[in-house]
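FORM 12-B: Structure-to-Sequence Request
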């Protein structure tokens, strides 16, 4: 059986909590289902790359964001957009464990891999 790849770009954070939570939930469920997941944090979701920020996020009837992040990083990757990090003055040293910073070239390379599906939230 071929492993499926799923790349998810989440652009919203606390400004659009339902859309944000949906992206993290889909990523965690896909990871638990055996897909190779790559979650990209852009725009307002960039803040969740920092320790403690996901713990502040609450949405009724949604799984806690830290639990979803743990499920995603158990088998997949979480990447913070280079430009989004720079605009927010976020550096590698500031990131929560399991998060990396990379740019558009890495995103495009992941999306163009055979067997990859991409979603944007």
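FORM 12-B RESPONSE
SEQUENCE OUT:
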């Amino acid at each position: 059986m071929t492993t499926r790849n799923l790349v998810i770009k989440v652009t919203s954070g606390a400004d659009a909590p339902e859309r944000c939570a949906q992206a993290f939930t889909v990523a965690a469920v896909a990871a638990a289902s055996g897909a190779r997941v790559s979650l990209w944090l852009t725009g307002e979701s960039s803040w969740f790359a920092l320790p403690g920020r996901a713990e502040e996020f609450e949405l009724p009837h949604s799984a806690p964001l830290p639990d979803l992040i743990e499920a995603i990083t158990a088998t997949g990757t979480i990447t913070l957009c280079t430009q989004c990090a720079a605009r927010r003055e976020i550096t590698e040293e500031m990131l929560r464990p399991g998060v990396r910073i990379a740019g558009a070239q890495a995103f495009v390379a992941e999306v163009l891999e055979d067997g990859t599906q991409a979603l944007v939230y």
